[in-house]
């Protein structure tokens, strides 16, 4: 894009020079002393540039960086190509432009030295969700086959899985110099880890409630009292499981927002 800006500036100076040359050449100046771009070549370059710009815009490639390079190329062309039809720019002018370019590039590059690459960490978040979900599913199958106790299943969710999620969250928390375009992604990832940890704790609580030893009322108590006790326990279990499922849905909704950018 910078080259197109430079070319456009050269064409501007050429058209400006042609408008000023309505007089006959001086005695010491030949009529064909200037070097200009032929009109046919100008048309071909213009057509190619137009196609390139349209393709870049439709493909989503014309961002601020590309437009900035176009403006910079135009600015340098207006400075360096003023008399390019007659002679080359002076080495002093070219050297000054090069020094200015180096200074500007170094000024903008210095803050990018330690910029964070969040992609590996987001991939780690996605991999942790897939791994922990698979581990819990295998443990839940073992529990249903009575090969694992309810307390062991609850501890897997509450301690092992939550600890892994917290470790991933600490890595995200330690990131510095996150680019502005990735800050929202990191925020969503940390929000997912917070909600997912809460959902696993709620699930562990629901498992313990559903599999706790029932405290039946004494035999001397009335059947109505025993029935009320069972109904209250059933409602408590339903509430705990509903809380766990709601927290899981909320966390997975956020997970889908961070999973799409992490896909190859």
Whole-number total of structural domains: 2
Largest β sheet strand count, sense and barrel closure: none
Averaging pLDDT over every residue, what do you get?
76
- Give the number of helices: 8
The structure class reads: mainly alpha
Quick synopsis:
With 264 residues, the chain is mostly helical. It is built from eight helices and no strands.
SSE arrangement:
Blueprint: H1 2-20, H2 39-58, H3 64-80, H4 91-109, H5 119-144, H6 150-173, H7 180-210, H8 223-262
Helix pairs in contact: 1-3, 5-6, 5-8, 6-7, 7-8
Descriptive overview:
With 264 residues, the chain is mainly α. It folds into two domains: 2-112, no CATH class; 119-262. It is built from eight helices and no strands. It is elongated. It starts with a helix and ends with a helix. Mean pLDDT is 76; it is low at 27-33.
Task: Provide keyphrases for this structure.
264 residues, mainly alpha, 74% helix, elongated, 0% strand, 2 domains
